[in-house]
Design a protein that fits this description.
By secondary structure, the chain is of the alpha/beta class. It is built from ten helices and 17 strands. It binds zinc ion (2 copies).
């Protein structure tokens, strides 16, 4: 089968498109024919070596929409259309799995990182970590929901957002655009702080209550904030915009570094900084249901598998208005 394989970290061209053997089905797994695979900033962190290497010759990609072609079961027939996200498996056995925190599992499987992902014609995935998809959305439009959408939604949960609250979104990308309709459906006011005139225009188009550039300060004290930029400075900016008792949730698997900040003025008053790590299957189920109800339809830019490097570059340089999606 054709696949895009990671071959040159820290080089200009990260992926090499070539032929590799199609994976063999094994117990508890299903083989999917990939219909679409979204490109996530995490893929870029993996390709650029910001995250440690777990596997040589990796096929990245963890926002997979696929059709079951082998290994089907009564629950998942041949032809079923499913989504696969970053969380590709857990041990089911550790402290975290036993306490409803499978996102923190001690022995996790990460799709497109610890196992091969969806920048390919076929992918082997654990059956119990697939998500049946609503028929209404086509494959390319559902792909960005599978990480950007689900983990953006988890960020709102981690931040403890309550209906009607004022919520800041700091840094703006695919995740933030998908979080806005969810927040609006909860009656929240959305304050967006981001560099880039295009991002601000998108936020305005999506109906944000207020939009400002990176040096601007929201006109109200925020109840909650979510940061999407891989920058510690942005976390401190978000923290300095919170009311007492407010929470910043960091939606980033990697940050450049956290700058020093003043505890007395910024964190005192029971303000909290929390990271958002991975996702649970419940997050996926709940978000996909909401996305269907709200008819969330992300903007997408479609790339062929041969153009996988261009898709990564588009995410790096934020040149596309919509989410980059690879269609093999
Ligand atoms: Zn576990
Ligand atoms: Zn992701």
């Amino acid at each position: 089968m054709k696949a895009a394989i990671l071959n040159a970290r820290k080089a200009e061209v990260h992926l090499k498109v070539g032929e590799v053997p199609r994976p063999e089905v094994k117990a508890g797994h299903v083989l999917l024919r990939v219909l679409a695979c979204g490109v996530c900033r995490t893929d870029l962190h993996i390709a650029e070596g910001d995250l440690p290497v777990l596997r040589e010759g990796l096929i990245p990609g963890h926002q997979i929409v696929g059709e079951v072609v082998e290994g089907a079961s009564a629950a998942l027939e041949v032809g079923s259309r499913v989504g696969v996200s970053w969380m590709g498996g857990t041990d089911g056995d550790c402290f975290f799995c036993k306490h409803a925190m499978e996102n923190l599992c001690d022995h996790p499987v990460f799709t497109g990182y610890s196992v091969n992902g969806g920048y390919a014609e076929y992918v082997l995935v654990r059956e119990d970590f697939t998500h049946l998809l609503p028929k209404e959305l086509d494959a390319t439009h559902v792909a960005p929901l599978l990480c950007a959408g689900i983990i953006g939604f988890r960020s709102l949960r981690v931040a403890g957002v309550q209906p009607g609250e004022s919520v800041g979104l700091f840094g703006f990308g695919s995740s933030a655009t998908l979080a806005i309709p969810v927040l609006q459906s909860w009656g929240c006011k959305v304050y967006v702080v981001t560099r880039g005139a295009e991002h601000r225009a998108t936020a305005e188009r999506l109906g944000a209550t207020w939009v400002g550039d990176e040096d601007a300060r929201a006109p109200v004290a925020l109840d909650r904030a979510v940061t999407f930029a891989p920058s510690g400075k942005v976390v401190v900016d978000a923290l300095s915009s919170l009311r007492k008792g407010g929470v910043v949730a960091i939606n980033a698997i990697h940050l450049d570094q956290m700058p020093a900040f003043n505890y007395d003025t910024l964190l005192w008053g029971e303000r909290q900084i929390r990271s958002v790590a991975n996702m649970t299957r419940a997050d996926a189920t709940d978000f996909l249901k909401i996305a269907q109800e709200l008819k969330i339809q992300p903007r997408v830019s479609v790339f062929s598998l041969e153009d996988a490097n261009k898709a990564l570059l588009a995410v790096k340089n934020e040149t596309e208005d919509g989410s980059a999606v690879i269609v093999p």
